[in-house]
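REQUEST
  id: r-88c1
  op: predict_structure
  target: DNA 3'-5' helicase
  payload:
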Amino acid sequence: MSLLKFVEVAVDSPGSGNRTFTYSMPSGLSLELGHSVVVPFGNQTKQGIVFGVSGTSDLDSVREALELTDSDPLIDPIRLELARWVSQQYFCTLFQACSLMFPPGARKRKSVWLSVASGVEVSELKFGEFQTSILKYLSSRKSAQLEKVVAHFGERARGSVTRLVEKQVVVRTVKESSVKVRVKYEKLGKITKSGKSALIEGKLLKAPKQLGALTFLTNEEDTVHRLATLRGKFGSSSINSLISKGYLDQEQLEVERDPLNGKLYTPAQPVSLSDSQTYALEQIYELIKKPLIKTRAVLLHGVTGSGKTEVYLEAVSLCISRGKSSLVLVPEIALTPQTIERFSSRFPGKIAVLHSGLTVGERFDQWRKIKANEYQVVIGSRSSIFAPLNNLGLIIIDEEHEWTYKQNDGVPRYHARDVAMQLAGLTSAAVILGSASPDIESYQRAKRGRYRLVELNHRYRPDAVNGSSSRDDRLLAEVNIVDMRSELKSGNNDIFSRQLVAELERTISNGNQAILFLNRRGFSSLVQCNSCGYVAKCRNCDVSLTFHAESKLLICHYCAQKRRDIEKCLECGSDSVGKYGVGTQLVTEKLNKLYPDVVIDRWDSDAIAKNSHYGELLDRFR
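RESPONSE
  id: r-88c1
  status: 200
  body:
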């Protein structure tokens, strides 16, 4: 046994905790730290991640690892240590912690699918109303995932499904599933020497489409064209015939799915910094240049417009000059377009983007390129803290006080800021925590010396044309609080106060723009019966459903469960059902009625379907 090599594997099993399990390495298979493998586990096979490799084992009997799922390691040793910390800190399994660092499609999952048993006629069965509803749902489809059924009917559907399976009315099937994503290739057609000779010798005079294709390729500056284009122009049979005759060669070219492809940014030069910005930069420079300094974070507390982003840009510039990479976190996907624009203008061709708003293919390609050191800067939301950046020198967390840096859904839950501090400790990277209103924990840590505290108390206006900056003495926005109860008492039943309407009219008449913020999407936040008080709630979450006027649906903003709008109360049958509360759809409708000649845009996740639309809306507003 001592001659064999052994691996310690974190297995994808809920009961595995933060333990690893010993397996022998198959002959002819070389396993390294971070490799994804398939191993036997009990009477099943499971995916796992290699956490250790050794030449000996104290165990008398060891099972053999079965196969690799990826030829290259998915996770580097530093991030394996980070995964160990995440597992202990947030009470999840080692494998769950590792899965945060996987590229799309790397995790192999098993899912339960349900279907009505062959030969069963649902209309002839006698079950309760709830079970019959489930059967009708399944019979309207070939099959459905158990989780989809539970999402539709609520948690009690699990027990009903189990009983239907026991009665052999429903068939339960376990399938392995993963997001299918791989490198994308495009087939190209190129004329060969034989093809050129055939053209000269007139061999294709009786095949006009083939002749046309070769003539087209010869006359074009670029003699290589997409096969799909050639097939569309000259017909598939003609192109296939040219390939079989050896007149046309097929080539394969990798196509990068780049979310920034086609984006043009005006190059920007660095601007001169104020004294306070220069001091802030000196504090950050020291941490970047001296990795052994124990304090690794700077809390950059700057008022709105104080030039925190200029400090970020200069710090990233230093990292790039020293051959190090940088990670920039923003709290919302909606903020990435403007952040990308600032950084891409300064560092063209060096920026990668990672967030859930990208397509699976885009995330996969960005992850691979980042791991291959093709980008020096990564910009993204909280999940990008796990990006496979090598030689990390700087982590920037903009608006560090925002709650969106906390992952509250699913397992594992984590706080990106705390993960960033741990990652900085493992990589000796510097961390910038930027905010105009710091999180109370961060501010207390800075006051106690765990972070360096740097304050930017004045606003500055950079001039990108001449590279200078000047102090901006404009006061911060004045805040007026209007008590809507007083508005109601004085006869104003509208959702807008008189003062807000007056300010909007003044702004519009002056040719300026206005932004109205509201923390709830949809039309009405509450649907309630006026007779018995019944409130339409989510079956899963027991929270009130929000009415969406455009789709005429009631939607849960926690789990996304959808129901048709109700005209009659589901409890007492009364048709006196009211809709209360205010959402962005209602605000937009009211504004359109107030100002029919003014262009009004709504910006929420319902109106902005794709990430690219954020940038389009910003451009319209500018």
